[in-house]
Amino acid sequence: DEYADLMCAENWVLTGLCEFDPSWPGVLEGFKGCIEGNAVVGPDGVLYNMLRHGAGRYPPEFGRAVLLKADAEDPHAAPVFDRVIPFNGAQSKFVVLKDEVSGLYFSISNLSVDSRNPVTRYTLALKASKDLVEWKVLKILIDRRHENPKEVGFQYPDFLFDGDDIVYASRTAVNGARNFHDANCTTVGRVKNFRDLANAAFPGK
């Protein structure tokens, strides 16, 4: 029930557990699991969990995410593996939301730009997809690659649609933070007319 009270414990269901399998096609060598998922309804009407898998230890691997598929007919059933997808930015937590106006999926995540060190967090980018599988970078929102990657990080972004705009926030380490992970600031930004960026990337969608 999409209108159920989320504050009522009886309205929650715990599915069975999907055990990570390193033999899944596309899994990165040496990685042992997936974390920090996003529950989102796919274009086929099925509920998916899009999880962070990681960035490879060897360049030029810039990240992959894992899609697990839920069973709408049996909400107690364990989700099942669907596929591994290329996703630059899966080295850190990201958020995926569907825009009901355009029908596209949007994400804000870090963007790896240095093949020698693909796990940096000094950039944030806005991306979009028609199908949750193939993603396009629409705009780099923050780029501090000229600074020390051990001291600067824009991470764990979240965002909301606000009319024709996107508003976002990230946990931020900058201007003298102890390290890139230990935040000393919050960054808040706005992407104006974000659908115009998507229309240019997906003409005639």
What this model shows, in words?
- This protein has 205 residues and is mainly β.
- It has one domain (9-201).
- The chain has one helix spanning 194-201; strands spanning 35-41, 47-54, 64-69, 80-86, 95-98, 105-109, 123-129, 135-143, 153-162, 165-173, 185-191.
Question: Topology, pairings included?
Answer:
Layout: E1 35-41, E2 47-54, E3 64-69, E4 80-86, E5 95-98, E6 105-109, E7 123-129, E8 135-143, E9 153-162, E10 165-173, E11 185-191, H1 194-201
Kindly summarize this structure in a few lines.
The chain is mainly beta and 205 residues long. 4% of the residues lie in helices and 39% in strands.
Keywords:
single chain; about 200 residues; mainly beta; four-stranded antiparallel sheet; 1 helix
Structure class: mainly beta
Assign an overall shape: globular
Q: Tell me the domain tally.
A: 1
- Mean pLDDT across the residues is 92
- How many distinct helices? 1
Strand order of the largest sheet: 1-2-3-4
